[in-house]
């Protein structure tokens, strides 16, 4: 019989090899200086033993193989114990970003048709008041009392304490989890992760970044923290609100990094910007990874200057549906900055093996079979597709979206990223923006990431967003502009003239005739970085910019 395909299978092995190594350190109580004491810890032995107990206890409560279970628990020892218990049990955790719009959240929860709901007391209260996940019949609370739930997690653990090792016999194709996208282009979609996707993801991430057991990680981006225990790392969970990275207190992050000799940091571009602005050196870090959205060049340069000699700054490119697709190191990113600022797009690096990345002709239609695809050559902009061990093959209960995003190629399924880009002569992938954000003008398409960086070089501009106004295929390009902080609105006529002059330097940007000042761009909650271009397009149309 073959061993189960399950990331939780790593736990008993690691617990035998390194029982006393700390798997997880959490902020816990606060000292008189206001800083977290990090007095909540879990060793590998405890993580393995206690997740066994919880897995067995959940089975007593009818949560087992295949049970779709909403998990609404903040990063804490309980979160890790519970997630590994669910994997061991072969249950299917459903994770939705708590930061998203409440209506979208409810829709996600309904769509996932969960059978169980495990959450903090506040999540149970919201479930009751707002009618979330009505189909879920089993309720477990992380609270001290079984308020609004059938049972507490502590009681579940106690019930399973004597049961011994647990590990469901999961097959590679069995569903392991449903993870919702952040929904920056619409309502989030539930991505179906199979056990083989997680196993491959750990393998690819481990190899791409050279992760070694024994390292100390500060994962500021919650879903990724889950990989640390499977890789033998020690995770230090930062003292911050994970849904508000731009508001993190850099002093607290520095304190944790210095106290535990953190050698690896994982976070969103918004968090990188916080550390870069703070400006204090980060001497223990060997590797920084920033994922989820493009990292502004100033942030890359400022953060690299704070790192010790030989440290690496990686930016993976990928999506909830497929990660990692490609990776680029900060030195290369900085070397390609000039090209980005003249309209080449953003270099996202080389595909992570064994991913096969191909560029296909742009279409908004579904493509059922790879034989109907037109593969583009070097330098041609098209839609980015990925085939490989971490490319997921379906959305949960979203057949229309699945058809739009997946192409069958013989035995395998190719994922369409919904992003546009191209390969250069050196085999590097360049990201040119989201497919749905392209502006189709009468003179041909314009891509956001080939236009905005050209204008973003203006010192009094914080960021820009290209949107289209008018009917399909003959849209008028409009550049929305957010001025840098403190720049008064009366300066706008001059800045607009200067932007027009900058645009005139390149044939593609010279086609932009309309510039609109916008006070503050709508952005996504998770990354604080993805611009809500859909909303801006509606706004631009209302400003009387038509034909
Ligand atoms: N390194 C990167 N550089 C530029 N853009 C990136 C990078 N990494 C990811 N992205 C962007 O983020 C997208 C993936 O984001 P994610 O999976 O969090 O959900 P989302 O796309 O924001 O949500 P939804 O699909 O629901 O709109 C990619 O398709 C790409 O557009």
SSE topology:
Layout: H1 10-17, E1 22-26, E2 40-43, H2 44-60, E3 68-72, H3 77-89, E4 92-95, H4 102-111, E5 116-119, H5 121-130, E6 138-141, E7 151-152, H6 153-159, E8 175-180, E9 190-194, H7 195-209, E10 216-219, H8 222-225, H9 227-231, E11 234-236, H10 250-259, E12 264-267, H11 269-278, E13 287-290, H12 297-306, E14 312-319, E15 322-329, H13 330-335, H14 337-340, E16 346-351, E17 356-360, E18 382-387, H15 399-405, E19 406-409, E20 412-423, E21 429-434, E22 439-441, E23 444-446, H16 448-455, E24 461-469, E25 476-483, H17 492-503, E26 514-517, H18 533-542
Parallel strand pairs: 1-11, 3-4, 3-5, 4-8, 5-6, 6-7, 10-11, 10-12, 12-13, 13-14, 25-26
Antiparallel strand pairs: 1-2, 8-9, 14-15, 15-16, 16-21, 17-18, 18-20, 19-20, 20-21, 22-23, 24-25
This protein binds adenosine-5'-triphosphate (ATP).
Adenosine-5'-triphosphate binds at residues 181-186, 188-189, 292-294, 315, 317-320, 346, 348, 417-419, 431, 434, 530.
